[in-house]
Amino acid sequence: MSQSWRTAILERLRAKVASGRPIVGGGAGTGLSAKLEEAGGIDLIVIYNSGRFRMAGRGSLAGMMPYGDANGIVMEMVREVLPVV
Question: Which tens digit of pLDDT belongs to each residue from 34-50?
Fold first, then answer.
């Protein structure tokens, strides 16, 4: 993320807080959920490595187990989700 994007995002979030409005974040495991969150006006879309395991029918606890590289899984998921928002 470039510094100008980071600055713009932080300014927008700080202005929202200063005006007394909450910052709303939500988790997304797929592009569809991220797209709907964005359409609903969410401020932050969070990608969890456990989302990959939940989509495979496992429980969220699987995200805390040593089944894979958590950071690598999140980066893979981001490449799938980011293009649709």
Answer: 999 999 999 999 999 99
Residue 80 lies in a domain: yes
**How many domains are there within the chain?**
1
Which pLDDT belongs to residue 16? 97
Indicate whether 46 belongs to any domain: yes
Global pTM reads: 0.79
Amino acid at 12: R
Residue 23 tokens, joined: 């910052």
Q: Are 44 and 25 in contact (CB under 8 A)?
A: yes
Domain that holds residue 42: 22-84
- The partner residues of 44 in beta bridges, in order of sequence, read 25
